[in-house]
Specification:
alpha+beta; five-stranded mixed beta sheet; four-stranded mixed beta sheet
Amino acid sequence: MGILDGIPHVNAVLSHQPWPRAVVTEAGWQAAIDRLVEGGLTLLGFWGEPTAVHMAMLDGGSAEIAVVTYECTAGTFPSVASRHPPALRLERTIHDLFGLVPTAADDLRPWLDHYAWGKSYPFSGRNASRDVRPYQFLPVEGEALHQVAVGPVHAGIIEPGHFRFTANGEHVVRLEQWLGYTHKGIESLMQGASLEAAAKLANRTSGDSAVAYAFAFACAVEAALQIEAPRQAMRALMAELERLANHLGDIGAICNDASFALMHAQTGILRERCLRAANVAFGHRLMMDVIVPGGVMRDIAPDGVPALRALLAELRKVFPRLIELYDNTASLQDRTVTTGIVKAEYACQFGAGGYVGRASGRDFDARRAIAYTPYDALSFEVPVLQAGDVNARVWIRIREVEQSIELIEQILDQLGPGGLETALPPRIGRGACEGMALTEAFRGDVLVWLRLDGELRVERCHLRDASWFQWPLLETAIEGNIIADFPLCNKSFNCSYSGADL
Protein backbone atom coordinates (compact mmCIF):
# COMPACT_ATOMS: atom_id res chain seq x y z
CA MET A 1 0.00 0.00 0.00
CA GLY A 2 1.41 3.40 -0.99
CA ILE A 3 1.55 6.47 1.22
CA LEU A 4 -1.34 8.17 -0.56
CA ASP A 5 -3.59 5.12 -0.21
CA GLY A 6 -4.07 6.01 3.46
CA ILE A 7 -4.53 9.74 2.89
CA PRO A 8 -7.80 11.06 1.38
CA HIS A 9 -7.01 13.17 -1.66
CA VAL A 10 -8.86 14.99 -4.41
CA ASN A 11 -6.66 14.29 -7.40
CA ALA A 12 -3.16 13.23 -8.33
CA VAL A 13 -0.82 15.56 -10.23
CA LEU A 14 0.27 13.39 -13.16
CA SER A 15 3.06 15.74 -14.26
CA HIS A 16 4.95 15.18 -10.98
CA GLN A 17 7.90 12.76 -11.21
CA PRO A 18 9.26 10.37 -10.03
CA TRP A 19 7.13 10.18 -6.86
CA PRO A 20 3.40 10.95 -6.64
CA ARG A 21 1.91 14.29 -5.62
CA ALA A 22 -1.75 14.71 -4.71
CA VAL A 23 -3.98 17.65 -3.80
CA VAL A 24 -5.76 17.08 -0.50
CA THR A 25 -8.61 18.64 1.44
CA GLU A 26 -8.27 19.59 5.10
CA ALA A 27 -9.19 16.03 6.05
CA GLY A 28 -6.36 14.66 3.91
CA TRP A 29 -3.92 17.23 5.26
CA GLN A 30 -4.81 16.30 8.83
CA ALA A 31 -4.50 12.61 7.98
CA ALA A 32 -0.98 13.24 6.69
CA ILE A 33 -0.10 15.09 9.90
CA ASP A 34 -1.52 12.16 11.88
CA ARG A 35 0.89 9.81 10.11
CA LEU A 36 3.80 12.10 10.95
CA VAL A 37 2.80 12.37 14.60
CA GLU A 38 2.38 8.61 14.90
CA GLY A 39 5.88 8.08 13.46
CA GLY A 40 4.66 6.10 10.48
CA LEU A 41 6.05 8.75 8.11
CA THR A 42 9.00 11.14 8.25
CA LEU A 43 8.78 14.77 7.16
CA LEU A 44 11.12 15.21 4.18
CA GLY A 45 10.21 18.75 3.20
CA PHE A 46 7.62 21.49 3.72
CA TRP A 47 7.43 24.49 1.41
CA GLY A 48 5.02 27.01 -0.02
CA GLU A 49 3.74 28.79 -3.09
CA PRO A 50 1.59 31.93 -3.19
CA THR A 51 -1.65 29.93 -2.87
CA ALA A 52 -0.60 26.45 -1.70
CA VAL A 53 1.65 24.52 0.65
CA HIS A 54 3.38 21.21 -0.06
CA MET A 55 4.59 18.52 2.28
CA ALA A 56 6.96 15.69 1.23
CA MET A 57 6.90 12.56 3.36
CA LEU A 58 9.01 9.41 3.54
CA ASP A 59 8.00 5.91 4.59
CA GLY A 60 11.24 4.73 6.17
CA GLY A 61 10.32 1.07 5.91
CA SER A 62 9.55 0.97 2.19
CA ALA A 63 11.55 4.08 1.17
CA GLU A 64 8.42 5.34 -0.60
CA ILE A 65 8.01 9.11 -0.97
CA ALA A 66 4.90 11.16 -1.63
CA VAL A 67 3.95 14.84 -1.68
CA VAL A 68 0.63 16.24 -0.49
CA THR A 69 -0.58 19.71 -1.46
CA TYR A 70 -3.11 21.85 0.39
CA GLU A 71 -4.60 24.77 -1.54
CA CYS A 72 -4.79 27.85 0.67
CA THR A 73 -7.90 29.42 -0.82
CA ALA A 74 -8.36 31.68 2.22
CA GLY A 75 -4.65 32.39 2.68
CA THR A 76 -4.46 29.88 5.54
CA PHE A 77 -3.61 26.23 6.12
CA PRO A 78 -3.85 23.92 9.14
CA SER A 79 -0.65 24.19 11.16
CA VAL A 80 1.68 21.21 10.95
CA ALA A 81 4.14 22.45 13.58
CA SER A 82 1.51 22.70 16.32
CA ARG A 83 1.34 18.91 16.24
CA HIS A 84 4.71 17.96 14.71
CA PRO A 85 7.63 20.13 15.97
CA PRO A 86 10.09 19.28 13.13
CA ALA A 87 7.92 21.42 10.82
CA LEU A 88 8.21 24.58 12.94
CA ARG A 89 11.03 26.48 11.24
CA LEU A 90 9.81 25.54 7.78
CA GLU A 91 6.30 26.69 8.72
CA ARG A 92 7.61 30.03 9.97
CA THR A 93 9.58 30.38 6.74
CA ILE A 94 6.44 29.80 4.65
CA HIS A 95 4.74 32.57 6.62
CA ASP A 96 7.74 34.90 6.15
CA LEU A 97 7.94 34.40 2.40
CA PHE A 98 4.31 33.95 1.33
CA GLY A 99 2.22 35.46 4.13
CA LEU A 100 0.21 32.23 4.39
CA VAL A 101 -1.05 31.81 7.94
CA PRO A 102 -0.97 28.45 9.70
CA THR A 103 -4.15 28.21 11.75
CA ALA A 104 -3.76 27.17 15.39
CA ALA A 105 -0.01 27.84 15.15
CA ASP A 106 1.84 28.17 18.44
CA ASP A 107 4.72 30.24 17.04
CA LEU A 108 4.50 32.83 14.27
CA ARG A 109 7.67 34.74 15.07
CA PRO A 110 9.70 35.60 11.94
CA TRP A 111 12.44 33.17 11.00
CA LEU A 112 14.11 34.38 7.80
CA ASP A 113 12.61 37.88 7.88
CA HIS A 114 14.89 40.27 9.76
CA TYR A 115 12.92 43.29 8.48
CA ALA A 116 15.67 44.05 5.97
CA TRP A 117 13.90 43.14 2.74
CA GLY A 118 12.06 46.40 2.24
CA LYS A 119 8.71 44.61 2.10
CA SER A 120 6.82 41.89 3.91
CA TYR A 121 5.87 38.48 2.48
CA PRO A 122 7.83 38.97 -0.78
CA PHE A 123 6.26 35.97 -2.58
CA SER A 124 2.70 36.84 -1.67
CA GLY A 125 2.07 39.09 -4.67
CA ARG A 126 0.37 41.69 -2.53
CA ASN A 127 1.41 44.79 -0.64
CA ALA A 128 1.08 43.48 2.89
CA SER A 129 2.62 45.06 5.96
CA ARG A 130 4.11 43.45 9.01
CA ASP A 131 4.74 45.09 12.34
CA VAL A 132 8.45 45.61 12.96
CA ARG A 133 9.28 44.57 16.49
CA PRO A 134 12.32 43.19 18.32
CA TYR A 135 12.70 39.43 18.11
CA GLN A 136 11.18 37.79 21.17
CA PHE A 137 13.20 34.87 22.50
CA LEU A 138 11.27 32.30 24.46
CA PRO A 139 11.00 33.09 28.18
CA VAL A 140 12.84 31.02 30.76
CA GLU A 141 11.96 30.98 34.45
CA GLY A 142 13.96 29.79 37.44
CA GLU A 143 16.36 30.89 40.11
CA ALA A 144 19.97 31.87 39.48
CA LEU A 145 19.59 31.85 35.69
CA HIS A 146 21.50 34.17 33.40
CA GLN A 147 21.69 34.61 29.65
CA VAL A 148 24.69 34.63 27.32
CA ALA A 149 24.22 36.03 23.81
CA VAL A 150 26.61 34.71 21.15
CA GLY A 151 26.63 36.07 17.60
CA PRO A 152 25.47 36.73 14.99
CA VAL A 153 29.07 37.85 14.34
CA HIS A 154 31.55 35.15 15.33
CA ALA A 155 35.30 34.89 15.50
CA GLY A 156 37.06 33.90 12.29
CA ILE A 157 35.24 33.54 8.98
CA ILE A 158 32.32 31.28 9.93
CA GLU A 159 28.82 32.30 8.91
CA PRO A 160 26.56 34.44 11.12
CA GLY A 161 23.93 33.07 13.47
CA HIS A 162 22.63 34.08 16.89
CA PHE A 163 22.74 31.70 19.86
CA ARG A 164 20.96 32.68 23.07
CA PHE A 165 22.09 30.56 26.05
CA THR A 166 20.25 30.43 29.33
CA ALA A 167 22.57 28.96 31.96
CA ASN A 168 22.71 28.09 35.61
CA GLY A 169 26.33 28.78 36.41
CA GLU A 170 28.23 27.07 33.58
CA HIS A 171 25.51 24.53 32.74
CA VAL A 172 23.19 25.26 29.82
CA VAL A 173 19.50 25.13 30.67
CA ARG A 174 18.31 26.17 27.22
CA LEU A 175 19.77 27.18 23.90
CA GLU A 176 17.67 29.07 21.37
CA GLN A 177 18.92 29.83 17.87
CA TRP A 178 17.92 32.54 15.46
CA LEU A 179 19.26 32.24 11.94
CA GLY A 180 18.41 33.83 8.60
CA TYR A 181 21.37 36.23 8.46
CA THR A 182 22.70 34.66 5.24
CA HIS A 183 19.37 34.75 3.40
CA LYS A 184 20.16 35.33 -0.27
CA GLY A 185 16.74 34.99 -1.89
CA ILE A 186 17.75 31.92 -3.90
CA GLU A 187 14.17 30.76 -4.47
CA SER A 188 13.23 34.20 -5.76
CA LEU A 189 16.26 34.26 -8.06
CA MET A 190 15.25 30.84 -9.38
CA GLN A 191 11.87 32.04 -10.61
CA GLY A 192 11.96 32.53 -14.37
CA ALA A 193 15.60 31.46 -14.62
CA SER A 194 16.90 29.30 -17.42
CA LEU A 195 18.11 25.84 -16.48
CA GLU A 196 21.70 26.97 -16.95
CA ALA A 197 21.30 29.94 -14.59
CA ALA A 198 19.24 27.94 -12.08
CA ALA A 199 21.85 25.17 -11.97
CA LYS A 200 24.49 27.75 -11.06
CA LEU A 201 22.29 29.04 -8.25
CA ALA A 202 21.73 25.52 -6.94
CA ASN A 203 25.49 24.97 -6.94
CA ARG A 204 25.89 27.96 -4.65
CA THR A 205 23.17 27.24 -2.10
CA SER A 206 25.80 25.94 0.31
CA GLY A 207 29.31 26.07 -1.11
CA ASP A 208 30.71 23.07 0.75
CA SER A 209 27.90 20.94 -0.75
CA ALA A 210 28.08 22.32 -4.30
CA VAL A 211 28.23 18.88 -5.90
CA ALA A 212 25.35 17.46 -3.85
CA TYR A 213 23.08 20.38 -4.73
CA ALA A 214 24.06 20.28 -8.40
CA PHE A 215 23.44 16.52 -8.42
CA ALA A 216 20.01 16.89 -6.78
CA PHE A 217 18.97 19.79 -9.04
CA ALA A 218 20.02 17.92 -12.17
CA CYS A 219 18.19 14.77 -11.05
CA ALA A 220 15.03 16.77 -10.32
CA VAL A 221 15.10 18.33 -13.81
CA GLU A 222 15.76 14.96 -15.42
CA ALA A 223 12.88 13.43 -13.45
CA ALA A 224 10.54 16.21 -14.59
CA LEU A 225 11.57 15.73 -18.22
CA GLN A 226 11.69 11.92 -17.85
CA ILE A 227 15.15 11.57 -19.32
CA GLU A 228 18.27 9.69 -18.25
CA ALA A 229 21.64 11.42 -18.17
CA PRO A 230 24.94 9.77 -19.09
CA ARG A 231 28.10 9.73 -16.95
CA GLN A 232 26.26 9.20 -13.67
CA ALA A 233 29.35 7.47 -12.28
CA MET A 234 31.31 10.68 -12.72
CA ARG A 235 28.67 12.55 -10.72
CA ALA A 236 29.06 10.05 -7.87
CA LEU A 237 32.84 10.33 -8.10
CA MET A 238 32.59 14.07 -7.46
CA ALA A 239 30.04 13.55 -4.67
CA GLU A 240 32.35 11.13 -2.84
CA LEU A 241 35.34 13.41 -3.30
CA GLU A 242 33.30 16.26 -1.79
CA ARG A 243 32.30 13.99 1.11
CA LEU A 244 35.95 13.07 1.73
CA ALA A 245 37.14 16.68 1.83
CA ASN A 246 34.40 17.79 4.22
CA HIS A 247 34.64 14.84 6.60
CA LEU A 248 38.40 15.24 6.86
CA GLY A 249 38.01 18.93 7.59
CA ASP A 250 35.32 18.26 10.21
CA ILE A 251 37.29 15.58 12.05
CA GLY A 252 40.22 17.95 12.42
CA ALA A 253 38.06 20.93 13.39
CA ILE A 254 36.29 18.93 16.12
CA CYS A 255 39.64 17.89 17.55
CA ASN A 256 40.84 21.49 17.37
CA ASP A 257 37.86 22.62 19.44
CA ALA A 258 39.00 20.07 22.02
CA SER A 259 42.47 21.70 21.97
CA PHE A 260 44.09 18.89 19.97
CA ALA A 261 45.61 20.96 17.18
CA LEU A 262 47.81 18.19 15.80
CA MET A 263 44.83 16.34 14.30
CA HIS A 264 43.53 19.60 12.86
CA ALA A 265 46.82 20.22 11.09
CA GLN A 266 47.14 16.69 9.73
CA THR A 267 43.57 16.33 8.49
CA GLY A 268 43.86 19.84 7.03
CA ILE A 269 46.72 18.58 4.87
CA LEU A 270 44.61 15.64 3.66
CA ARG A 271 41.64 17.90 2.96
CA GLU A 272 43.86 20.16 0.88
CA ARG A 273 45.07 17.11 -1.05
CA CYS A 274 41.42 16.30 -1.86
CA LEU A 275 40.72 19.82 -3.09
CA ARG A 276 43.84 19.86 -5.26
CA ALA A 277 42.96 16.48 -6.76
CA ALA A 278 39.46 17.81 -7.51
CA ASN A 279 40.97 20.82 -9.24
CA VAL A 280 43.23 18.62 -11.38
CA ALA A 281 40.42 16.24 -12.31
CA PHE A 282 37.53 18.67 -12.77
CA GLY A 283 39.03 22.15 -13.08
CA HIS A 284 37.63 23.54 -9.81
CA ARG A 285 38.51 22.88 -6.18
CA LEU A 286 34.82 22.66 -5.20
CA MET A 287 33.83 21.09 -8.55
CA MET A 288 31.24 23.79 -9.20
CA ASP A 289 29.25 23.92 -12.44
CA VAL A 290 30.39 20.51 -13.70
CA ILE A 291 27.12 18.66 -13.07
CA VAL A 292 24.28 20.12 -15.15
CA PRO A 293 20.78 18.95 -16.08
CA GLY A 294 21.23 16.30 -18.74
CA GLY A 295 24.76 15.26 -17.83
CA VAL A 296 28.10 16.87 -17.08
CA MET A 297 29.84 19.85 -18.64
CA ARG A 298 33.26 18.25 -18.96
CA ASP A 299 34.99 14.93 -18.80
CA ILE A 300 37.59 14.08 -16.21
CA ALA A 301 40.98 15.53 -17.21
CA PRO A 302 43.61 13.13 -18.61
CA ASP A 303 45.77 13.51 -15.49
CA GLY A 304 42.71 13.39 -13.20
CA VAL A 305 42.60 9.62 -12.70
CA PRO A 306 46.30 9.37 -11.70
CA ALA A 307 45.81 12.32 -9.32
CA LEU A 308 42.83 10.65 -7.67
CA ARG A 309 44.59 7.29 -7.36
CA ALA A 310 47.56 9.04 -5.75
CA LEU A 311 45.16 10.70 -3.31
CA LEU A 312 43.62 7.35 -2.36
CA ALA A 313 47.07 5.85 -1.80
CA GLU A 314 48.03 8.71 0.52
CA LEU A 315 44.78 8.48 2.46
CA ARG A 316 45.19 4.73 2.94
CA LYS A 317 48.68 5.32 4.27
CA VAL A 318 48.10 8.32 6.57
CA PHE A 319 44.47 8.24 7.70
CA PRO A 320 44.61 5.01 9.81
CA ARG A 321 47.49 6.47 11.83
CA LEU A 322 45.48 9.59 12.58
CA ILE A 323 42.49 7.55 13.69
CA GLU A 324 44.71 5.52 16.01
CA LEU A 325 45.97 8.80 17.44
CA TYR A 326 42.39 10.04 17.97
CA ASP A 327 41.31 6.81 19.62
CA ASN A 328 44.30 6.60 21.97
CA THR A 329 44.37 10.19 23.24
CA ALA A 330 42.63 10.07 26.61
CA SER A 331 42.33 13.84 27.02
CA LEU A 332 40.54 14.04 23.65
CA GLN A 333 38.18 11.19 24.47
CA ASP A 334 37.36 12.91 27.75
CA ARG A 335 35.99 15.87 25.79
CA THR A 336 34.07 13.96 23.10
CA VAL A 337 32.61 10.89 24.85
CA THR A 338 29.15 11.52 26.45
CA THR A 339 29.23 15.18 25.34
CA GLY A 340 26.33 16.62 23.33
CA ILE A 341 24.10 13.55 23.21
CA VAL A 342 21.21 13.50 20.71
CA LYS A 343 18.54 11.07 21.87
CA ALA A 344 17.57 8.38 19.38
CA GLU A 345 13.88 9.30 19.59
CA TYR A 346 14.67 12.91 18.61
CA ALA A 347 16.80 11.81 15.66
CA CYS A 348 13.93 9.61 14.47
CA GLN A 349 11.21 12.21 15.06
CA PHE A 350 13.11 14.96 13.20
CA GLY A 351 14.27 12.65 10.42
CA ALA A 352 17.84 13.77 11.08
CA GLY A 353 20.08 12.80 8.19
CA GLY A 354 23.79 12.27 7.82
CA TYR A 355 26.18 11.74 10.70
CA VAL A 356 23.80 13.45 13.16
CA GLY A 357 21.08 10.88 12.58
CA ARG A 358 23.29 7.84 12.04
CA ALA A 359 25.29 8.54 15.22
CA SER A 360 21.98 8.32 17.10
CA GLY A 361 20.72 5.12 15.53
CA ARG A 362 18.72 6.42 12.53
CA ASP A 363 19.70 4.08 9.74
CA PHE A 364 19.02 6.22 6.67
CA ASP A 365 21.24 7.12 3.73
CA ALA A 366 19.64 8.33 0.49
CA ARG A 367 22.32 6.58 -1.57
CA ARG A 368 21.10 3.23 -0.27
CA ALA A 369 17.42 3.90 0.60
CA ILE A 370 16.56 5.68 -2.66
CA ALA A 371 19.33 3.85 -4.53
CA TYR A 372 19.66 6.49 -7.21
CA THR A 373 22.06 5.91 -10.09
CA PRO A 374 24.90 4.88 -9.90
CA TYR A 375 24.78 3.90 -6.22
CA ASP A 376 22.35 1.09 -7.04
CA ALA A 377 25.28 -0.66 -8.73
CA LEU A 378 27.99 0.17 -6.16
CA SER A 379 28.95 -1.74 -3.03
CA PHE A 380 29.20 0.18 0.25
CA GLU A 381 28.18 0.05 3.89
CA VAL A 382 26.29 2.67 5.91
CA PRO A 383 27.78 3.02 9.41
CA VAL A 384 25.29 3.45 12.27
CA LEU A 385 26.02 3.98 15.97
CA GLN A 386 23.78 4.41 19.00
CA ALA A 387 25.66 6.63 21.48
CA GLY A 388 24.59 9.93 19.88
CA ASP A 389 27.48 11.95 21.34
CA VAL A 390 30.29 14.01 19.76
CA ASN A 391 32.50 10.92 19.68
CA ALA A 392 29.86 8.94 17.76
CA ARG A 393 29.51 11.73 15.20
CA VAL A 394 33.31 11.67 14.74
CA TRP A 395 33.31 7.90 14.25
CA ILE A 396 30.51 8.04 11.68
CA ARG A 397 32.65 10.46 9.70
CA ILE A 398 35.69 8.19 10.08
CA ARG A 399 33.81 5.17 8.73
CA GLU A 400 32.31 7.22 5.91
CA VAL A 401 35.79 8.39 4.89
CA GLU A 402 36.79 4.74 4.63
CA GLN A 403 33.67 3.94 2.59
CA SER A 404 34.20 6.91 0.27
CA ILE A 405 37.74 5.77 -0.45
CA GLU A 406 36.37 2.37 -1.49
CA LEU A 407 33.59 3.94 -3.56
CA ILE A 408 35.97 6.23 -5.44
CA GLU A 409 38.16 3.26 -6.27
CA GLN A 410 35.17 1.28 -7.53
CA ILE A 411 34.08 4.19 -9.72
CA LEU A 412 37.56 4.77 -11.12
CA ASP A 413 37.76 1.10 -12.07
CA GLN A 414 34.46 1.38 -13.96
CA LEU A 415 34.94 4.73 -15.72
CA GLY A 416 34.84 4.52 -19.47
CA PRO A 417 34.31 6.75 -22.49
CA GLY A 418 30.90 8.06 -23.37
CA GLY A 419 28.83 11.12 -24.17
CA LEU A 420 28.69 13.95 -21.66
CA GLU A 421 25.15 15.28 -22.09
CA THR A 422 21.70 14.24 -23.22
CA ALA A 423 19.80 16.84 -25.20
CA LEU A 424 16.90 18.26 -23.21
CA PRO A 425 13.58 17.67 -25.02
CA PRO A 426 11.57 20.71 -26.16
CA ARG A 427 8.36 21.26 -24.20
CA ILE A 428 6.70 23.98 -26.25
CA GLY A 429 2.96 23.44 -25.96
CA ARG A 430 3.28 20.51 -23.54
CA GLY A 431 2.64 22.47 -20.35
CA ALA A 432 4.44 22.51 -17.04
CA CYS A 433 6.18 19.50 -15.52
CA GLU A 434 7.45 18.84 -12.00
CA GLY A 435 10.37 16.86 -10.62
CA MET A 436 11.84 16.02 -7.25
CA ALA A 437 15.12 14.44 -6.20
CA LEU A 438 16.95 13.41 -3.07
CA THR A 439 20.74 13.05 -2.91
CA GLU A 440 23.10 12.33 -0.03
CA ALA A 441 25.39 15.27 0.77
CA PHE A 442 28.10 14.95 3.39
CA ARG A 443 25.71 16.43 6.02
CA GLY A 444 22.76 14.30 4.99
CA ASP A 445 19.99 14.28 2.40
CA VAL A 446 19.40 17.27 0.12
CA LEU A 447 15.94 17.64 -1.41
CA VAL A 448 15.16 19.62 -4.57
CA TRP A 449 11.63 20.12 -5.89
CA LEU A 450 10.89 22.17 -9.00
CA ARG A 451 8.35 23.02 -11.66
CA LEU A 452 9.38 23.84 -15.22
CA ASP A 453 7.29 25.74 -17.75
CA GLY A 454 6.88 24.94 -21.44
CA GLU A 455 10.06 26.83 -22.30
CA LEU A 456 12.21 24.94 -19.80
CA ARG A 457 12.37 27.85 -17.40
CA VAL A 458 11.97 27.43 -13.68
CA GLU A 459 8.53 28.42 -12.43
CA ARG A 460 9.27 27.43 -8.84
CA CYS A 461 12.15 25.66 -7.10
CA HIS A 462 12.61 24.68 -3.45
CA LEU A 463 15.92 23.43 -2.05
CA ARG A 464 16.03 21.82 1.39
CA ASP A 465 19.28 21.23 3.24
CA ALA A 466 19.69 18.47 5.82
CA SER A 467 20.50 21.21 8.34
CA TRP A 468 16.82 22.21 8.60
CA PHE A 469 16.21 19.11 10.70
CA GLN A 470 19.61 19.10 12.44
CA TRP A 471 19.81 22.64 13.83
CA PRO A 472 16.93 22.09 16.30
CA LEU A 473 18.65 18.96 17.63
CA LEU A 474 21.74 21.00 18.48
CA GLU A 475 19.54 22.92 20.93
CA THR A 476 18.66 19.66 22.68
CA ALA A 477 22.20 18.26 22.54
CA ILE A 478 23.76 21.13 24.49
CA GLU A 479 21.26 21.06 27.37
CA GLY A 480 22.96 19.99 30.60
CA ASN A 481 26.43 20.50 29.10
CA ILE A 482 28.69 23.41 30.01
CA ILE A 483 28.87 26.48 27.78
CA ALA A 484 32.54 25.76 27.05
CA ASP A 485 31.50 22.55 25.27
CA PHE A 486 29.21 24.34 22.83
CA PRO A 487 31.91 24.95 20.17
CA LEU A 488 32.69 21.23 20.29
CA CYS A 489 29.02 20.25 19.97
CA ASN A 490 28.40 22.83 17.27
CA LYS A 491 31.33 21.67 15.16
CA SER A 492 30.31 18.02 15.55
CA PHE A 493 26.99 19.02 13.90
CA ASN A 494 28.54 21.48 11.43
CA CYS A 495 25.12 22.54 10.18
CA SER A 496 24.93 24.82 7.17
CA TYR A 497 23.85 28.42 7.79
CA SER A 498 23.67 29.24 4.09
CA GLY A 499 21.81 26.06 3.16
CA ALA A 500 19.11 26.68 5.75
CA ASP A 501 18.87 30.44 5.22
CA LEU A 502 18.27 30.12 1.45
